[in-house]
Write a structure and sequence with these properties.
The chain has a single domain, classed as Serine Threonine Protein Phosphatase 5, Tetratricopeptide repeat, CATH 1.25.40. Helices cover 75% and strands 0% of the residues. It has helices at residues 2-10, 19-31, 35-48, 53-65, 69-83, 91-109. The longest helix is centred in the last third of the chain and has 19 residues, at 91-109. It is globular, with a radius of gyration of 14 Å.
């Protein structure tokens, strides 16, 4: 995270990595039982793309996989809140994120 912040400070307009690439790596880490690593990577994605609903939903998935219900709920709710202003995705993708976050919330809030 410190290296990322230093690089971003030095060149604020540079794209250091693509959102979708980091998400794919994060889910790969989760599939390989490296959930804590996935969380750290996906937190970096949230820091880089704070206006993306998808990054919050992905981080919610990671916290859910880690058994952290409270943070999973928090980030799923943030994903839903970001949907209206996320202009980088089409309506179909917005609906998929809405369905994912809502499904998580329904399941997590039942416990």
């Amino acid at each position: 995270m410190q290296e990322f912040e230093a690089a971003k400070k030095a060149n604020p307009d540079d794209v250091l990595f693509r959102e979708n690439t980091v998400n794919l790596i994060g889910y790969g880490l989760m599939q390989n039982n490296r959930v804590k690593d996935a969380i750290e990577l996906l937190k970096l994605n949230v820091a880089t793309y704070p206006n993306s609903a998808n990054v919050y939903d992905s981080l919610a998935d990671a916290y859910d996989a880690d058994g952290n219900r409270e943070l999973a709920i928090q980030y799923a709710e943030k994903a839903l809140a970001k949907l209206a202003s996320d202009g980088n995705i089409d309506d179909g993708r917005k609906q998929a994120i809405r369905d994912s976050a809502t499904g998580k919330l329904n399941r997590l809030k039942q416990h």
